[in-house]
């Protein structure tokens, strides 16, 4: 027999729950009530409670705070949330607290008893399952969907060494020999964009919403169970179960249903996905092989031809290409970054990307591999150049998010832009490291101006490079050379202008370009302001200059 606690400040709702709940049929021995969260905590201390039904909006101690305390002090307790407010904060806390279900007021008999049955199924499963896998790996506050997710993941990752216990088989449809199975992989192409625009940057909430969409698309003989891959933020896994029928029929239904999923995700959240459908298997333990073929289907999609959602079959062959490598280009990129020439490093990367674009194909799998290898090699380079290790991304799939880089790409152009953003991040960290590891010499600024006077020189170039304030740099430069930085640039240009004007074979227009001026008139005005004569007048009589 189970004990249930209702925590709600509204007596009519508590009474409605008492009336609507099928307590006897569900094996409930006692239903207790608390009028607020604080009283609920007291009753949890006094009684052995198996399930708490919690209203989110209450005085004294609200549902959000109560869930947090339960999660910390009563990790074995299962919870169902009831709220009259479709509020983001409430939903997020419910997800983080792994509640069994989330119901909106006014509740009805069907939804309430379905949620109760789900909770008691979890409790019953805990009592029946005695295998080593369950004892070691299933948290006591896990809901039935989380339990199924753990079982499927253990199969996919091939971490289940022994056959599943008999108690676990019905949970995943493996107790019926007539069932067939397939794994489907959904790759989210615009994860950061969707999570930012629609889910307050909460990727867990995005996963939750997407899994709900997947799980809603099911029929009498065709069921879908979707969940996020905990090791890959961009990946959702769906296990499809179908009873009887032909393999071809199941394959057709899978394509049809996944197209519906993709359209719904895009309509509701603006989410773009690639979908790989794995091979159909008769044995639930072969879902791992089906998952591999689903991944291969996604990896084989040609990024150069990708236009929005694509559904690919596990029977599709991986698109083989030349074995591309960064090894010949990383030294070139390093030389460019060490010398502070980011533009040259960009051109090296751009030229390589141009070769990929002109190839017969560039698969999604190869795109993943190339950016993974790029991060590894750039990390090695940055460490050799004394960049602080904590400033570098991890090598895993989610590492770029850790350094603030949005890694979305749904086209080759977006992929190339991602590579450039990664390159720029490393360039900035290397520049910071070089600046921190060498003493500043104001003569470096003078030398740069002497050699690059024809460029558009801005003081911000030096403040960013040396991490010094604008005021400090200008004051220090003037103390050493008697000119402000802008004044010195002008002086160098004007001195050089005289030298060039002394050569009669050079046109004034050409001289203007050689000095970095936008046009002849702008140069002439600057020359007159500096020497009180025009370039033409100086050329006629140099003594006037």
UniProtKB/TrEMBL annotation:
Query: Which SMART domains does this UniProt record tie to the protein?
Result: HTH_ARAC, REC
Q: Name one Pfam family in it.
A: Response_reg
Alphabetical UniProt keywords = Cytoplasm, DNA-binding, Phosphoprotein, Transcription, Transcription regulation, Two-component regulatory system
Per the record, residues carrying 4-aspartylphosphate are: 55
Compartments, as annotated in UniProt: Cytoplasm
Superkingdom of this protein's organism: Bacteria
Q: Which residues form the Response regulatory domain?
A: 3-120
Does the record carry Phosphoprotein as a key word? yes
What InterPro entries does the entry give? CheY-like_superfamily, Homeodomain-like_sf, HptR, HTH_AraC, HTH_AraC-typ_CS, Sig_transdc_resp-reg_receiver, Tscrpt_reg_AraC-type_HTH
Q: One GO CC annotation, please?
A: cytoplasm
- Which residue numbers delimit the HTH araC/xylS-type domain? 443-541
- Name any Gene Ontology BP term: phosphorelay signal transduction system
Residues annotated as transmembrane:
none
Note whether Cytoplasm occurs among the keywords: yes
The entry lists its GO molecular-function terms as:
DNA-binding transcription factor activity; sequence-specific DNA binding
Q: Quick one: where is this thing mainly located?
A: cytoplasm
Name of the protein = Response regulator
Q: Which organism is it from?
A: Cohnella luojiensis
